[in-house]
Design goal:
Number of domains: 2
Radius of gyration: 16 Å
Shape: globular
Helix content: over 70%
Order of helices and strands: HHHHHH
Largest sheet: none
Structural class: mainly alpha
Oligomer: single chain
Number of strands: 0
Amino acid sequence: MIRLLYMGGGLLAVALAIIGAFLPIMPTVPFLIVAVFCFARSEPEWERRLLEHHRYGQVLRDWGERGAIRRRFKVISISAMAVGAGFTWYTIGWPWVMISLGVLMTFGVWIWTRPE
């Protein structure tokens, strides 16, 4: 039963990652990290396939082995959050932009302090 729950969580995470690959406001890699975690406990072959993926495999292995994020991806992530904050300010303005800025400051600092 637990294995099925992990498999369902992994499949849901992959589905959200696929959506995130096409929507700039939604992340991809964090969902793939969750999927790897779930598949490691339910379907090791699917975990292996994610870790060997031509585009995301190295990023997932870096995170799993060292908790590391490459500088290029740090810059991309923080820039995307800054663009999102700017978009929030432009479209709905004050005080809602404060939520986006809070996310940017909290998670941006956390991302930047991860090892490379």
